User: Which sequence fits this backbone?
């Protein structure tokens, strides 16, 4: 079982006592209402290293600088709001514990790359969701609907299990060097969501989705750098899913 | 300010909002306004499943499901609504499957089902497998599937539009819905949406507790906006505490863990639920399990140096079963606690989870202005609403069901109404109230911090209005909330900008939480009995003579502009089930 954003949790829970240490957070700030230039700002706070990076951001926002701006909601890695670049790597702030980041050194936090920064850690998500919508991310069937559920064997259900875990946080897409260079590339997340339907035995639009991804901005742009797999906070084998889509395009079997 | 015009406007894009949107978009020109991108909604955090008597793995029927829902809700449930919930559950699950939801499957290829708290065979004989699930991310799959269906249907979303006010206007002496006012977060601009029909599906308000499974964004925005406009709030004293939150953090660990065979243990390793619910043990309803856990802790049988939690033990379950059925929650334990659930028990404590109360509606999703009259054009569904299918305590898996059944009903009813009704004229200066509120907060230069007031609110709610309540604790909470509301007038917002001003957003949200916490506490003080999730140590018994009725809280404003809460009561709809002692 992977815990993609946490290198190595310490064994066994301790007694839960709080031991604060002093940590520097170096945050990339940008607010076009104030300045056209982005800049780094250091915040030095005392915090328990067992806390999440999101807790540190909240502490800074709530106690030091209310203008610090970021998205967040569920705070436990399921809503996908708070993907950001932490120490140069894409992670969810709510799923990354400070102690796993070498807090003796400044921890850098900046917006994910490849999407336009709107303010501080908030980026424009529209191009990301547009790519998602473009791969027909919904079940397509023909004929009369059955009265009861469609049957699907446990093995057929398992075939696409991994890619159903996607929370559309954009950690994968915004870690991809191809996407950084050319925002027209569909990007890993859209391909993952195409995969989720292409390999669903109930679906009948696999060919159409493959054609969409056969485009010049489609799967062939992938250079298998595995950044996306490393970045995925849900532990999805993203690069493998992309490879399976490529394979399906070659063999037309899925 | 911009003005938009739609037949139907839906506020919120979680399960209920999107289920409504799918229906409304087919029938009327519809817009969905949502504070969060749809896939960020907290429906996605639901784990264990969605109840429906499919009888795929063992004998079951919707009548048993209705009974369990009524009994689980400690007989405060409106039985006509519960019957609809249980009957329409079956088609709701099948609809989702046809939209593509990847349910776990039986060896026959049908939808698999598992046990869940309070769901029983033949009126309480033994646990029944009724929960349809997709591993332990059923809510995630429902949210994704509904969003996918919305993409397919071409639903029009206004993402990151925060609705702050509902506009009502009087036509021939009847108050009718005429629109909503929203703040566009990206620009700080106000938008007025005129609509014939409005569906509120903006979710819960669990962030006024500190230990909470709720998202930071669950601040009761819909309930608070409605309440300010004189719409009553029903049964707000009934708040559910889920037994198994991660110790101190409150992150949810699904009841499905116990459905798969997990066991709660105290510091002696004892399976203590055997003493409290001899028949269904760890699968008793949530209110009973949460009280049992706190009783163990109070009597000195809690775990850890401070004896302040108990254990959820999964160590006897095969690792393959945990990987296949409970992958997310076992990962939460590893990520946040550094614990390996294969070999170590997980420290847990009850966590604030779900508001049974909300905007009162009938079974068509129409919002009530009082005990009998609806507000034409105004609808609500999901956690923001109180229909009431959950009564005094919701059964696990019934909320994913609620959003689908009543989200669909509200979407259809709203769009059908919109197809025959006329637009109601907007009030004069429709944005006036919100504009004033936003400017006041943005310009505020007080000395009080939003985060301090919020923390103190959460602390008093955890201390005084949680699983165990007394007149004394509730009075203390009421007085502290009143003081916090005063201090709220002296807050400051540091961010003076317009673009993504989340500092301002949090200040508005706190105002909503303060208003709703007060309603909860005032309603709870007046309910001098114990029922479901509302347990009064000074009145430990259920009192059907005086309190078999729904609370209806109204905001009143006197001539000087001071507000207060007036309580009224509404009868419970009883059809086939007479109240009985609630034993499991």
Assistant:
């Amino acid at each position: 079982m992977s815990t993609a954003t946490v290198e190595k949790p310490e064994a066994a829970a301790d007694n839960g006592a709080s031991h604060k240490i002093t940590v520097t957070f170096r945050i990339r700030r940008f607010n076009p209402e104030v300045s056209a230039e982005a800049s780094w700002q250091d915040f030095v706070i005392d915090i328990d290293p067992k806390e999440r990076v999101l807790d540190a951001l909240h502490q800074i926002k709530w106690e030091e600088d209310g203008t610090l701006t970021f998205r967040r909601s569920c705070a436990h890695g399921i809503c996908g709001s708070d993907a950001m670049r932490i120490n140069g790597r894409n992670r969810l702030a709510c799923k990354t514990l400070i102690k796993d980041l070498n807090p003796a050194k400044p921890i850098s936090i900046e917006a994910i790359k490849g999407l336009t920064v709107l303010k501080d850690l908030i980026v424009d998500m529209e191009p990301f969701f547009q790519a998602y919508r473009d791969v027909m991310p919904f079940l397509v069937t023909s004929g009369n609907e059955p009265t009861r559920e469609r049957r699907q064997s446990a093995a057929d259900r398992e075939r696409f299990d991994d890619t159903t875990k996607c929370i559309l946080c954009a950690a994968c897409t915004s870690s991809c060097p191809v996407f950084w260079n050319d925002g027209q590339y569909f990007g890993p997340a859209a391909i993952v969501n195409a995969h989720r339907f292409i390999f669903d035995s109930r679906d009948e639009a696999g060919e159409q989705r493959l054609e969409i991804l056969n485009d010049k901005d489609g799967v062939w742009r992938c250079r298998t750098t595995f950044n996306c797999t490393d970045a995925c906070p849900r532990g999805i084998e993203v690069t493998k899913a992309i490879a399976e889509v490529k394979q399906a395009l070659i063999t037309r079997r899925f | 300010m911009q003005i938009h015009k739609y037949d139907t406007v839906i506020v919120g894009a979680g399960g209920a909002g999107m289920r409504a949107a799918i229906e409304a978009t087919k029938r009327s020109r519809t817009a969905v306004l949502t504070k969060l991108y749809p896939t960020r909604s907290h429906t996605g955090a639901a784990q264990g499943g969605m109840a429906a008597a499919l009888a795929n793995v063992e004998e079951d029927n919707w009548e048993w499901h209705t009974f369990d829902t009524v009994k689980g809700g400690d007989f405060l449930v409106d039985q006509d609504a519960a019957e609809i919930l249980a009957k329409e559950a079956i088609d709701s699950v099948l609809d989702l499957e046809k939209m593509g939801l990847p349910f776990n499957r039986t060896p026959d290829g049908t939808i698999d089902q598992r046990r869940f708290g309070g769901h029983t065979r033949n009126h309480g004989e033994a646990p029944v497998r009724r929960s349809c699930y997709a591993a332990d991310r059923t809510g995630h799959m429902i949210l994704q599937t509904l969003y996918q269906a919305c993409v397919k249907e071409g639903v029009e979303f206004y993402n990151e539009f925060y609705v702050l006010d509902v506009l009502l206007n009087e036509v021939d002496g009847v108050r009718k819905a005429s629109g909503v006012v929203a703040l566009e977060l990206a620009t700080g601009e106000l938008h007025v949406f005129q609509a014939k029909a409005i569906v509120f599906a903006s979710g819960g308000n669990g962030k006024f507790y500190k230990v909470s499974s709720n998202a930071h964004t669950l601040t009761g925005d819909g309930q608070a906006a409605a309440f300010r406009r004189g719409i009553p709030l029903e049964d707000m004293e009934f708040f559910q505490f889920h037994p198994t939150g991660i110790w101190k953090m409150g992150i949810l660990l699904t009841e499905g863990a116990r459905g798969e065979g997990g066991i709660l243990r105290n510091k002696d390793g004892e399976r203590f639920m055997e003493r409290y619910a001899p028949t269904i043990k760890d699968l008793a309803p949530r209110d009973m399990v949460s009280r049992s856990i706190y009783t163990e802790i109070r009597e000195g049988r809690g775990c850890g140096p401070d004896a302040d939690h108990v254990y959820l033990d999964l160590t006897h379950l095969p690792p393959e079963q945990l990987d296949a059925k409970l992958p997310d929650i076992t990962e939460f334990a590893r990520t946040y606690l550094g614990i390996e659930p294969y070999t170590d028990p997980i420290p847990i404590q009850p966590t604030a989870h779900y508001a049974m109360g909300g905007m009162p509606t009938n079974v068509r999703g129409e919002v009530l202005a009082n005990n009998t009259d609806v507000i034409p054009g105004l609808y609500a569904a999901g956690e923001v609403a109180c229909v009431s299918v959950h009564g005094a305590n919701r059964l696990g898996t019934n909320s994913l069901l609620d959003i689908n059944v009543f989200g669909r009903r509200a979407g259809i009813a709203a769009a059908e109404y919109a197809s025959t009704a006329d637009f109601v004229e907007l009030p004069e200066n429709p944005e006036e109230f919100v504009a004033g509120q936003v400017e006041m907060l943005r310009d505020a230069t007080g000395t009080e911090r939003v985060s301090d007031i919020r923390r103190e609110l959460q602390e008093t709610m955890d201390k005084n209005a949680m699983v165990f309540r007394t007149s004394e604790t509730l009075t203390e909470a009421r007085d502290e909330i009143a003081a916090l509301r005063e201090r709220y007038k002296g807050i400051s917002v540091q961010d003076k900008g317009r673009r993504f001003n989340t500092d301002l957003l949090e200040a508005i949200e706190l105002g909503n939480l303060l208003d709703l916490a007060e309603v909860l506490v005032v309603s709870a003080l007046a309910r001098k009995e114990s029922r479901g999730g509302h347990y009064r140590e000074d009145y430990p018994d259920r009192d059907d003579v005086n309190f078999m009725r729904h609370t209806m809280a109204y905001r009143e404003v006197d001539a000087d502009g001071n507000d207060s809460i007036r309580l009224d009561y509404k009868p419970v709809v009883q059809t086939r089930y007479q109240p009985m002692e609630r034993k499991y």
Observations:
- Chain A touches chain B through 67 residues (CB under 8 Å).
- The first helix of chain A runs from residue 53 to 63.
